[in-house]
Structure formats: structure tokens, C-alpha cells
Write a structure and sequence with these properties.
Length: 524
């Protein structure tokens, strides 16, 4: 038997991911695009409902307040998605609520001046205004770093090697949102996981009118089937004698969203009243804005790969961060109860459907705005049990994480230096946040516990984020450890052409602003 040729053993590195049906600027038919856009909207509902469901009761709000916050979060998310896809990075990314803001928000909720208010509704309104004020001030961090191109300058220290742990942990770092949540109701979570994998992977070659229907619409089909199954279990009284917690996770009638939702309601700025400003709250919130910035940087790199585009040039990335800052400012003005970031699950769906079209995401933004105004209809879809979403996250977060690992193809993984940097930054990116989580759940406060509340929030927020820890460790090691002699091992010869807009001719196709706006904002 003849010895295999080198090209038969290894695979050549690819600038753009192959195997996608539609890339960033190619579009399916209008009918297919609308159906895919609706699918992205359904997926975005998971986080949009989970965050207010967790926070609003802590603030003293009732079911009616929760519905209004969900509507507002979706409405502003739709606007931010349109702004990002038109004028920001122009990548097919859904902008939604972020979990990164939890520490400073819970710190505001537990502020002694707010806890003293006895009337729950007054306490809810005052807490919401305090969160709004903090978000408005903190948004300036991303606006300044983005539009001044400071983040573009910082990104020059990034290499393919340094980005691998960051992008990977954008997906892997959310492991506690996957099976730990799906496992709360295994009779719904496991069938959903099996059905989604079966449709999207094993039955992907089934076609109807030359469209791989089961692969492309695996999410919406499996959600419909399992949601109907969960409703059947609820209606048949399967959970009647189960503990309250089990009923909450499994029943389809526990969200109390449909009965509380108005038929039509348009969210508007300052709808909760005038925001209140506190320096301590704002400083604490700035840490969450920094974490959102770092997580979004990794998410944009993953989205560019799954949209079959080249990595976004430094100034495009910075421009996107600037618009994301505007998005957090809108979050503060409208009162969405949290800041915004790139939706990781929706990036995973680009890979699962093999459709990275920008138009599809813009249509999903239209659905987010439309159904947030038509309250009853939006509330119907929003009452899907969280365990269904968590089962899908097990696939989609893993897909995004593997996109991060794919950047290793541009580096030399036979180098001990590279093995050390990737291994240590991946491990610490998972281990340090886990330590902070365990400490917080045992002591009911983070490891940083001084008299300066804003300082505690700052440190606890930074080190609870896996991508942020990974970026600090990986970029520091990559730029200090034998960096002069290892440019080729780090993947810099490949990376350098994507740093500037004119470094690669394809950048113009993917990242040029619409309406000929590049005349006024010439790329660097």
C-alpha cells in the first residue's frame, strides 16, 4: 500500500467556511427568508423572557410588569439588530439581552435605599429607573471605545491564537444555560434535544421542492412538536401532584404572560419615568459593559465565519462596538432591565441552518418589533417553556465554541508555546468563573467583598465571564511569551491582511456601509 500524500493527511486552512448554502450577502427566496427570520425570532425569545422572569419579581414587579419588560426588551432588541446589521459590523447578528449585567443589576436591586420602599410597585419603578440611569452612563464606555477607534487599536494585539479561547468560551462559557436547565424537566428537554439533532443532522438530506426542509427549519418544527407534547402533558394533569418547582419548569401555563399581556402596546423612551443616577451604580455597570464588549468581539468573529465572510477588519469591529454602545443607551432610555450583547444562540443557528444571510436577520428584527407591539400574540410564543430553549442551546452554544476552535488551523499546534497558551487560557476561562459562581452561591456575595460596592461589582462581573478571563490570559501570554520569534506560529501572516479594510478585496463586499455612506465615513 502506497504511503499517503501530505495533502491526503492534512486539510489546507480556509479563509472562509465552506459548505454554507447562503453567505452574508446572498439571500434565500422571500418566503424562505421570512420563515427563517421567524425561526431566529423564536430562538431570541428564550433570553428575552428568561432575564425579566428572573429579575422583575426581585424588583417587586408583578406579571403585568414582567410582560411589559419582555415586550420592551424585544422591541429594543429589534431596533438594535437593525442598526447593527445596517450600520454596525453588518454581520448577521441578533442583538438581545445580556446575562453579563446580572451582578451590577442585582446589586442595584439590593441597594438599601430601594429595599426600604414598602410598596412593591413603587420599589419596582424606582429600581427600574436606577438601572436605567446606570445603563445610560455606562453605555458611554462602548460608545467612546467604538467610535474613537480605541478598540480597533486594542484589537491589533489579537492573533488567531489569542482569539481561539475567547471565541470558544463565548459558547462553552454558557454551559450552565444548557443541560442544567434542560435537565430540570427531562421529559421535555431530552426529546427536544434528540428531535433537533435528528432533524438538523441525520435527516438533513430530506428535501421538499429542492429545499432541505428538516435541516433548515429543524428548530421551528421540533419546538412545535415538543411544545404541543408539553401542552398535552399539562392538560392531561401529568404534573398535578408534582412539586411547585417541577411544575414551573414543565407546565406550559405557568408563565402567566398571555393573560397579563395587552393586545397592543408600543414601548417608548422613559416609559417608567425619569432615570435616576448614582455614581456607584454606574461604575459597577461599566464592568458589565466591558464584559459585553469582549463577549461581542468573540461573537462577531464567530458570526463572520458562520456567514462565510472574512474576519471583520479592526475599524469595522470598532464601528460595531460603537453601535452596540448606542444599543445599551437605548436599553437605558426604554428600560429593558438589562444591557444588550450579541445573541450567541442565534449565531449557532446560522451554522445549524447553513444560512448566514444578513436579510434573514433583518427580517427577524422586524418580527421582534412587530410581536412586541402585538402583546397577546407575542406572549403566546413567549410562553414556550425554558427547558425547550435550553435543549437547543446544548447544540447551538457547542457549535459556536467549535467555530472558535477552528481558528487553530491558522496556527502551529506543534508548538509547545501555543499549546501552553491555549490550554491555560481555556482552563482558567472555565475554572475562575466557576470558582466565583460557587463562592457566590455559598456566601451569597462574590469573592470581592469590600465596603466599596462598585469595586465589588466590577471585579465580580469581570471574573464571572469566561470569555473575558480567557481574553485577559490569552492576550497577555500571547504578547509577552516569545512573541517576537513566533509570528508565524501565532498565525499572524494570515491574520494581518484582515486587520485593515483594504487589506483584502473581499472586505468591501462584506462590510461596506449601505446608501453609499462610505463616502462620509471612509474605511481605514
Amino acid at each position: 500500500m502506497a504511503a499517503p500524500k501530505p495533502e491526503e493527511i492534512s486539510h489546507p486552512p480556509m479563509d472562509q467556511l465552506q459548505g454554507l448554502e447562503y453567505c452574508i450577502d446572498s439571500n434565500p427566496s422571500w418566503g424562505e427568508s421570512i420563515a427563517l427570520g421567524f425561526q431566529h425570532y423564536i430562538l431570541a425569545l428564550g433570553t428575552a423572557v428568561m432575564i425579566p422572569t428572573f429579575l422583575v419579581p426581585l424588583m417587586g414587579g408583578n406579571d403585568g410588569d414582567k410582560v411589559r419588560v419582555v415586550q420592551t426588551l424585544l422591541f429594543v432588541g429589534g431596533i438594535n439588530t437593525l442598526l447593527q446589521t445596517l450600520f454596525g459590523t453588518r454581520l448577521p447578528t441578533v442583538i438581545g439581552g445580556s446575562w453579563a449585567f446580572m451582578v451590577p443589576i442585582i446589586s442595584i436591586i439590593h441597594d438599601s435605599s430601594l429595599q426600604r420602599i414598602l410598596d412593591p410597585h413603587v420599589r419596582f419603578l424606582d429600581t427600574m429607573r436606577a438601572i436605567q440611569g446606570a445603563l445610560i452612563v455606562a453605555s458611554s464606555v462602548q460608545i467612546i471605545l467604538g467610535y474613537s477607534q480605541l478598540w480597533a487599536i486594542c484589537s491589533r494585539f489579537f492573533s488567531p491564537l489569542g482569539m481561539v479561547p475567547v471565541i470558544s468560551l463565548v459558547g462553552f462559557g454558557l454551559f450552565d444555560r444548557g443541560f442544567p436547565v434542560a435537565g430540570r424537566c427531562v421529559e421535555i428537554g431530552i426529546p427536544m434535544f434528540i428531535l433537533f439533532v435528528a432533524f438538523s443532522q441525520y435527516l438533513k438530506h430530506f428535501q421538499l421542492k429542492q429545499i432541505p426542509v428538516l435541516e433548515r427549519f429543524a428548530l421551528i418544527i421540533s419546538v412545535t412538536v415538543i411544545w404541543a407534547y408539553a401542552h398535552l402533558l399539562t392538560a392531561s394533569g401529568a404534573y398535578k401532584h408534582h412539586p411547585e418547582l417541577t411544575q414551573e419548569h414543565c407546565r406550559t401555563d405557568k408563565a402567566n404572560l398571555i393573560s397579563s399581556a395587552p393586545w397592543i402596546k408600543i414601548p417608548y423612551p422613559l416609559q417608567w419615568g425619569a432615570p435616576t443616577f448614582d455614581a456607584g451604580h454606574a461604575f459597577g455597570m461599566m464592568s458589565a459593559v466591558l464584559v459585553s464588549l469582549i463577549e461581542s468581539t468573540g461573537a462577531y468573529k464567530a458570526a463572520s465565519r458562520l456567514a462565510s465572510a472574512t474576519p471583520p477588519p479592526a475599524h469595522v469591529l470598532s464601528r460595531g462596538i460603537g453601535w452596540q454602545g448606542i444599543g445599551i443607551l437605548l436599553d437605558g432610555l426604554f428600560g429593558t432591565v438589562t444591557g444588550s450583547t450579541v445573541s450567541v444562540e442565534n449565531i449557532g443557528l446560522l451554522g445549524s441552518t447553513r444560512v448566514g444571510s444578513r436579510r434573514v436577520i433583518q427580517i427577524s428584527a422586524g418580527f421582534m418589533i412587530f410581536f412586541s407591539i402585538l402583546g397577546k400574540f407575542g406572549a403566546l410564543f413567549a410562553s414556550i417553556p425554558f427547558t425547550i430553549f435550553a435543549a437547543v442551546y446544548c447544540v447551538l452554544f457547542g457549535l459556536v465554541a467549535s467555530v472558535g476552535l477552528s481558528f487553530l488551523q491558522f496556527t502551529n499546534m506543534n508548538s509547545m508555546r501555543n499549546l501552553f497558551i491555549v490550554g491555560v487560557s481555556l482552563f482558567l476561562g472555565l475554572s475562575i468563573p466557576e470558582y466565583f459562581r460557587e463562592f457566590t452561591s455559598a456566601a451569597l456575595h462574590g469573592p470581592a467583598h469590600t465596603k466599596a460596592g462598585w469595586f465589588n461589582d466590577f471585579l465580580n462581573t469581570i471574573f464571572l465571564s469566561s470569555p473575558t478571563v480567557a481574553l485577559i490570559v490569552a492576550v497577555f501570554l500571547d504578547n509577552t511569551l516569545d512573541y517576537k520569534d513566533s509570528a508565524r506560529d501565532r498565525g499572524m501572516p494570515w491574520w494581518v491582511k484582515f486587520r485593515t479594510f483594504k487589506g483584502d478585496s473581499r472586505n468591501e463586499e462584506f462590510y461596506t456601509l449601505p446608501f453609499n455612506l462610505n463616502r462620509f465615513f471612509p474605511p481605514s
